[in-house]
Structure formats: C-alpha cells, structure tokens
Amino acid sequence: MNDLWYFSLRDSAWREVITDTLTKPVPRMSQSACYVKGLNKIFVFGGKTVSSQPADLNDTWYFDVSTMTWESVAIDTAPAPRSWTGCAYDPVADRIFIFGGYDSSGNALDETWVFNPDSSKWRFVAADTKPHSRGGAGYVYDPNGYRMIMYGGMYALDSGKMSDTWAFNLATFAWDSLETENIPPNKDFFGLVCDFPRNRVITYGGEGTGNGETWMLDLSDLAWSRICDANGGPGYDRITCMAVDTGYHYAYLFSGKGDIHDIPLQDLWALDLSSPDVPEEIADKGLSLSVSPNPAKGNVRIRFTLPGEGPYSLRLYDAAGRMVADLGQAQGPAPTSFVWEPDLGPGVYFLRLEAGGRALTEKLVIQ
User: How many CB atoms lie within 10 A of CB 241?
Assistant: First the structure.
C-alpha cells in the first residue's frame, strides 16, 4: 500500500492524507523513514516493493508536513537497493544516517551512510570497527551523548537474531560496542525509542518468544530492565515500530504484523513515560555549551558550564568527523568563558564538550 494517514493527539482521530496520485512513492514495505526537523519533512529511503515479485529500492523521498505533498529527491549516487535499514536524524548537523539492511539477494549489510539534505548527496562512512552486518535493528538518536544507539536485529533473513547494543559517535564517526547487563531476548523488527529526558531507550515487540515484553536500557549504567511482561502491554509479539510525542510524555505504538498469528493488527497503544514504576526524569546536571557569534568570520567566544569539579574535554571536529582542534582537557571549575581565534578554513564544524559522563555538541559555521 502507499496510502498515508496521521493520528491527531488533539482529538485522538485518524485522518487519511489525500495527495496528488501522480507524485508519490510506489507501494512498499520495510523502508527507512525519519522526521527531519530542519525541513519539517519526513524522509523516506528504499524498502521493498509490494508485489508478486518484490524488488528492493534505493529511491529517496520527502513528505512535506506543511503542504501535505510528496517530493522525489534527485540523487546522483545513492546506496545500493536495500530494505529493513536502520535510520535516524541528527538535528544538530541536519543530516540523516542509515546502517545495515538487506540487499536484493537477502544478504545482510554492515554499511554506514550519511545523507545531507542541503546538498541532497549521500556519502559512505568508512569504519575500522563496526557492528556485524544485520537488518531489522532498532536505531535512534541520543542527544545526551550526541550519538546513534543501535540494538538487536538479524544477521541473516529468517535466522540469527541478535541482542547487542552499539553507539555511533556523531562527532567522530566511530562505532563503539556497549557492554550492557541483563540483556533482553534476541529479537528483530521491533519498536525502539529514545526517552532522552530520562536518559534511556525503550523497546517493545519484534519477532520471537518473549517479545511481547517492554524493556528499558538505562544509558547511565547500561543495564537493561523489563518494564512489563506481555500481560501488561499490547500482549502480542509483533513486527512494529514506535514513536514519542514532542513532550516525551508518551511513546506510541500502532499496528504491526502479529508474529504468532501472522495477521496484521490495527490497535493503537500509548506507554506513559512518566509512570511511577519507571525511573523519574533525571535532574539537570548543569552542563551547558554556547559559541558566539555563529556564523563567525573571526574570533568567537566559547562559554560552558560543568557539573562541578572534575575532568572535561572540549574538542572541535569537521563535518567528516576528524578532530581539528583540542581546546582543553583539564580539571576545571565552572563556569568557563574564553575567546578563541579559529585557524581553520570556511566550513561547518562541531564543538563537543564532555564532562561527568555526558556530552553536548554545538554546530559552528566559519565563514
């Protein structure tokens, strides 16, 4: 199918979006999609056609939320056709990352690609250390660590479910395996959201026994815990996805394909993220970072505050993830402010502050 619907949180009603039938993607499944805040558009890439002879795709589309219209994006060079690819948006640098998926022969992939909406160009990201090839993994943006979090997936179609967790550093473009505790059952094709005010990710569903359960990963101590079993939630193992509202009050789950009954579902569920049986919102740890003027043609003033006495680092990276300036590593009191004279060419850079187990990143444009 290629119909489009939206659910209004104001009146709890579903509405179909009627668009120009001549300008929309072909019917598909298992595509990559995410919301691009900088454009107020939904990004769609690839997937698999829905037909008697399915074919993988590698086309790129936007759905403009303001005008309720589809737009095909002209691409010079794109990743090879693929489906079940992890996808997430980096709002700081305004770019989209994908990882993995299955190619047209059903082989799992281990490639990382980045799409720049400003230039409409794809770029392959080379990595010496990276996760095992897979499709159907969960992939979300974690602003507290300025990274993508990836969990689970399957390294071969119909076999090889996984339960490992990885982080992709958006400043350095480096993958890092996270050693987590109390790991949930292996699974794929599930829902995953990042509840960053409470510094955790939450997952529900997927294929396999026990995946009607809801689990949470605390990103501060990397320990998984089960929030509720199948009797305390939607109740089915299902292939599905999840999303959070902008206030991070609820995580929503709609429909999916029932794993046990092998039938499509039409139910809608909401998980209360402030429920008393899960951790409360973490307190503000006093970490802040700003740079001005921005864009800059000369000297810039950098201001930052720290949680307290303790080690910190302040580094500048270019758009390719290479460190181009080390602006401080010390035991420093907060707040801190200084003037810095960039000795760099024009371009987009990312200033990253790390302290107290947290990180902040600010985009800096040098003209």
Answer: 18
Residues 208 and 190: their CA atoms lie apart, in Å, by: 10
**Cα–Cα distance list, 143 to 140, 148, 193, 287 (Å):** 10, 9, 12, 13
**CB environment 16-44: b (16+ within 10 A), e (fewer):** eeebeeeebbeebebbbebebeebebbbb
R_g over Cα of the chain = 21
Whole-number Å distance between alpha carbons of 17 and 19: 6
Structure tokens at 202: 């939450």
Distance (Å, whole) CA 343 – CA 171 = 19
Q: Scanning the structure block, which residue is given the tokens 């505790």?
A: 181
Q: How far is CA 113 from CA 45, 92, 96, 219, 267, in A?
A: 12, 17, 8, 25, 34
Arithmetic mean of pLDDT, 300-304: 87
In the predicted structure, residue 217 carries a pLDDT above the cut 90: yes
Mean pLDDT of the chain: 86
Asked if the model's pLDDT at residue 280 lies above 80, the reply is no
Q: Do residues 74 and 115 make contact, with C-beta atoms less than 8 angstroms apart?
A: no
> What confidence score (pLDDT) does residue 284 get?
43
Question: Residue 209 pLDDT > 60, yes or no?
Answer: no
pLDDT for residue 238 is more than 80: no
CA distance 50 to 2: 10
Domains of the chain and any CATH numbers: 4-272 (2.120.10.80), 288-366 (2.60.40.1930)
pLDDT of residue 97: 97
d(CA 57, CA 86): 15
